[in-house]
UniProtKB/TrEMBL annotation:
Protein name (database record): Kinesin-like protein
InterPro entries named among the record's database cross-references: Kinesin-like_fam (IPR027640), Kinesin_motor_CS (IPR019821), Kinesin_motor_dom (IPR001752), Kinesin_motor_dom_sf (IPR036961), P-loop_NTPase (IPR027417)
Gene behind this protein: 106093597
SMART domains, per database record: KISc
Organism: Stomoxys calcitrans (Stable fly)
Record-stated family: Belongs to the TRAFAC class myosin-kinesin ATPase superfamily. Kinesin family. KIN-14 subfamily.
Keyword Acyltransferase among UniProt keywords: no
Chief place where the protein resides: cytoplasm
Length: 703
């Protein structure tokens, strides 16, 4: 069988290529520490050179192995290892291994036949003996090579633990190898007791072959492990690219995150500022809220107090309401009583006036004017308030007593003022409001003071202005009793027996006409009648009428009224509750002054004036004598005064006289006329009263 095997000499060539066999044996003496260091150096180199393909790795592995063997085999003698024969044996024994190591590694499964168990044990023993004796084993160098192979394996990993983990399923790792060495050491320790000297003889090619097969198996496993690692490493660029792209994405995300963080930090700052301002506002609002709450509490307390007061007031109101109802009933009763008493008062008032006479005469002697101080006065003796005595100054000087005594309803001394005179007139004005017709006229010589008595002056108003004031004052009081009044006025002038409208400058035909179905009631056609609602408006109209009245200078008066002026005020009162209407009227007449024809310079005016006054005297005398025919129509004046003189009217005549001796004759005539009028008894005046829309008495209603 051995003859078939190649001769050892034929195996020398590979030995020459590997003179480092002694170093192989020495290597275990450096221990695992040196092996680990070299492994680390290899790992570092591998990591610096990058990953290499497995073939190259294997080449390096082989070259490294061989080089290291070569380096270590540089001075085998220095190790003191034996003779040349031994070296030859060793060379022979290694040559097969080296040859086998230099063969290209096949990746396929080994097809060699299994090593017999005996041969395997022999190899094991050879390894063990080599480890214990620190001598280069004859055949056990393969184990040393295994260790060397194990050290070359390291370049793929610097971490022995990792290496062990990575190659756990395929081949023994460094750790395993170390273990193997340790085990070998243990075995060596054991072999100290029982040394194993078995080795593969150089001729035992079968054992050597098996050994090589074992090595081949180990290397093959390592190759597979490397292949797997290589595959994993091949994927590393892609993984690197992926990682780079991920890194890029991550970087972008990081930048985005940083920009977001910046934005968020800005927003955070803004939000912080907002938060601060809101916190400040909140503190202010809280303070305000506290104030408001205090105010609310105060108001609440006040509200509570007011509520209780309101309750009390409501109770009081209900009580007062009940009382008010009672009082309203009483008021209605009192109103009724007042109305009735007022009616009674009116009746009594007018009864008194009737008793005094429906035509009354007041005599007024005017004072001397400043321009008259050098003139002689008549002898005047004011016996009482109703009796006056006038004497001719010339008769007194001749001792011819000729005193003329006159009695009137009232005699006014020259010192009497306008106010005291009006007090005597005002009851008549009151009667007009009660629905009676009133007529007040002034008769007398020119310059005797008629206009002064009726109109007065601005500083001292007469009867007409005072009548206006009294009317409107009385209307106010009557309104409280339920009466409403309407006042209508007309201003008429009779000049030279012609009628003129003093409120209009138009030329128009005006006639005195009788009211239908009435004996004495008259009205004037085409006259301007104006409704006045205030005393001021009535005064304006009076002023207009005064400006339109004809005046001229006379001997007795620089500004003599040369016409008869009639101011008519119509009063229509209405009581809605009682459905009662009263209609009264006031005729205020300022007659033209009588004048002696001897002294007159305006004869036509004087004739007309004197004639109308004469007709007035005739009417009065006719009434006094109770004649059947009263000549009212003989003059415009008597015709106009017909209702006042002979009808349903209360009439008051002022007889004005001048105090001068020069006026004695005219004054005596006027006084005698007045005395005649005073004797005249006209019909009893009736009240113009309409009740329930039925005309009770419409006498004296104009138009
Ligand atoms: N009681 C008086 N007190 C003061 N002055 C008076 C009084 N009566 C009249 N007079 C003055 O006498 C003058 C004449 O009076 P008045 O004009 O009123 O007379 P008369 O009768 O109207 O005259 P006629 O008829 O011409 O118009 C006026 O200047 C007037 O101011």
């Amino acid at each position: 069988m051995e003859s078939k095997l190649p001769k050892p000499s034929a195996l020398k060539r590979p030995t020459a290529m590997k003179p480092t066999l002694p170093f192989e044996r020495i290597k275990p003496n450096f221990g695992t520490g040196l092996s680990n260091k070299s492994q680390m150096i290899c790992d570092s180199l591998q990591s610096l050179n990058g990953f290499q393909p497995l073939s190259k790795d294997l080449t390096n592995f082989q070259s490294y192995d061989c080089t290291s063997r070569r380096a270590r085999a540089a001075s085998p003698d220095s190790l003191g290892l034996g003779s040349t024969a031994s070296r030859l044996k060793i060379r022979r024994s290694r040559s097969a291994c080296d040859i086998r190591d230099m063969r290209p590694i096949k990746r396929t499964e080994p097809t060699l036949a299994p090593i017999p168990a005996k041969a395997a044990r022999t190899i094991s023993n050879a390894f063990a003996s080599a480890s214990i004796t620190n001598k280069p084993p004859r055949i056990g160098t393969s184990a040393t090579n295994c260790t060397g192979v194990g050290t070359v394996k390291r370049p793929f990993s610097t971490n022995p633990a990792k290496q062990a983990t990575g190659g756990k399923s395929t081949m023994p790792t460094q750790k395993n190898l170390v273990k193997t060495n340790s085990g070998s050491a243990t075995a060596a320790t054991t072999s100290t007791v029982k040394p194993q000297t078995k080795r593969i003889p150089p001729y035992d090619f079968k054992a050597r072959f098996n050994d090589l097969l074992e090595k081949h198996k180990i290397v093959k496993e390592r190759l597979e492990e490397k292949s797997e690692q290589l595959n994993r490493l091949k994927n590393l660029p892609e993984q690197l690219e992926d990682t780079k792209s991920q890194l890029k994405l991550t970087t972008e995300e990081l930048q985005n995150c940083q920009s977001k963080i910046e934005c968020l930090s800005k927003q955070t700052k803004l939000q912080q500022q907002k938060y601060d301002s809101i916190a400040e506002d909140l503190s202010k609002t809280t303070a305000k809220f506290e104030e408001l709450r205090k105010t609310y509490n105060n108001i609440k307390n006040e509200h509570t107090q007011l509520s209780s007061e309101v309750l009390q007031l409501r109770q009081r109101t209900s009580e007062l309401t009940e009382t008010n109802v009672v009082l309203l009933d009483e008021i209605n009763v009192y109103k009724e009583q007042l109305f009735r008493s007022n009616m009674e008062r009116k009746e009594l008032h007018n009864t008194v006036l009737d008793l005094r006479g429906n035509i009354r005469v007041f005599c007024r002697v005017r004072p001397t004017l400043e321009c008259e101080h050098d003139k002689l006065l008549c002898g005047w003796n004011f016996i009482d308030e109703a009796t006056v005595e006038i004497s001719n100054l010339e008769a007194i000087s001749k001792n011819k007593p000729n005193a003329h005594t006159f009695t009137f309803d009232q005699v006014f001394h020259p010192s009497s003022d306008q106010e005291s005179i009006f007090e005597m007139v005002s009851p008549l004005i009151q009667s007009a409001l009660d629905g009676y017709n009133i007529c007040i006229f002034a008769y007398g010589q020119t310059g005797s003071g008629k206009t002064y008595t009726m109109d007065g002056v601005a500083s001292n108003p007469g009867i007409i202005p005072r009548t206006v004031e009294l009317l409107f004052e009385s209307i106010k009081n009557y309104r409280n009793m339920g009466w409403e009044y309407e006042i209508k006025v007309t201003f008429l002038e009779i000049y030279n027996e012609v009628l003129y409208d003093l409120l209009s400058n138009e030329q128009k035909d005006m006639e005195i006409r009788m009211v239908k179905n009435s004996k004495n009631d008259i009205y004037v056609s085409n006259i301007t009648q104006e409704i006045v609602e205030s005393a001021g408006r009535l005064r304006e109209l009076m002023h207009i009428a005064k400006m339109n009245r004809a005046t001229a200078a006379t001997v007795g008066n620089e500004r003599s009224s040369r016409s008869h002026a009639v101011t008519k005020i119509e009063l229509v009162g209405q009581h809605k509750e009682k459905q009662e209407i009263t209609i009264g009227s006031i005729n205020l007449v300022d007659l033209a002054g009588s004048e002696s024809p001897k002294t007159s310079t305006r004869m036509n005016e004087t004739k007309n004036i004197n004639r109308s006054l004469s007709e007035l005297t005739n009417v009065i005398l006719a009434l006094l004598q109770k004649q059947d025919h009263i000549p009212y129509r003989n003059s415009k004046l008597t015709h106009l005064l017909m209702p006042s003189l002979g009808g349903n009217s209360k009439t008051l005549m002022f007889i004005n006289v001048a105090p001068l001796q020069d006026c004695f004759v005219e004054s005596l005539k006027s006084l005698r006329f007045a005395a005649t009028v005073n004797q005249c008894k006209i019909a009893k005046a009736k009240r113009n009263r309409i009740h329930n829309n039925s005309l009770a008495n419409t006498s004296g209603v104009g138009n």
